[in-house]
Amino acid sequence: APSPFSPSNGSSRKLSVDEMYLSDTGGQYLDGTTDITRTMHWGQPTPLQKEAYTRVLMGNIDLSRLVFPANTAGGTVESFARRALWDVGLNYGHGTGHGIGNFLSVHEWPVGFQSNNVPLSAGMFTSIEPGYYRDGEFGIRIEDVALVVEAQTKEKPFLTFEVVSLVPYDRNLIDLSLLSPEQIQYLNAYYKTIRARVGPELQRQQLEEEYRWLQRSTEP
């Protein structure tokens, strides 16, 4: 039987610029496992699509930059990823993240943000993946892999996240007027990191078109 992931004339349909696409990607590598989701729109998104996307991004950023005491349960901080959506009566019906193994399972127990997960401690890898979905219309998810690291605070030990997925977000869908100065600052720092780490590798592989795309997509 053909693989469910192979296109066929019966089930395939053309991509158009008139709708949103959610691409959940990942790979198993000898030095780690990735699970990254990006949502994009190549045309003119509706005001609702743009606002919903921006609020999902705000939740992703708010949880990613959170500083919290060591041994805090993931369930305690989970709502930071939802707050920007809750503010306008939106929500999503799945978990905010799951542990990710190192060359192991993509969904690796027992790390995560559910009430039955273990407390967060430095060295754990988790996904951070808020979303928003409208049945039959569109779906949004922004998923990054994050490493739990020690935060630079006066009192120790506090923790925060270091996002290790280095993929730009879709500028076409971001409503900058909704973002706080801190969120914009975070975004610019993230884009700077992507440029510094991914740019030279694309040049090394002589992927000029991809390098130009990266530069455009990571402008401050």
TrEMBL record:
Domain of life: Eukaryota
Domain Peptidase M24 C-terminal, residue spans: 157-220
Molecular function terms from GO: aminopeptidase activity
The keyword Oxidoreductase appears for this protein: no
Ranges of residues in domain Peptidase M24: 11-149
Pfam families, sorted: Peptidase_M24 (PF00557), Peptidase_M24_C (PF16188)
Keywords per UniProt: Aminopeptidase, Hydrolase, Protease
Family, per entry: Belongs to the peptidase M24B family.
Protein name: XPP2 aminopeptidase
